[in-house]
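Quick one: structure for this chain?
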Amino acid sequence: MIEGLFQPMHLVVIVGIVLLIFGPKKLPELGKGLGDGIRGFKAAMSGEEKAAETTKTEGVNKVA
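Got it. Here's what it folds into:
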C-alpha cells in the first residue's frame, strides 16, 4: 500500500498544485522559511542532546 505512494507523476501533480496555490514568486520565500525551520529544529535537537550530556557529566562529577 505504501510502496507506490510517491510515484513521479504524483510529485508532478503536487508541485503543480503548490504552484497554483502560492505562485512562483512566493516559492523561494516558502523554501527559505522551511529551511530555516528545519535548521532551527536540528539546532534545538542537538542542543537538547548537549544539555543531556552535560547533565549526565555533571551528575557523575558530583557523585565522584
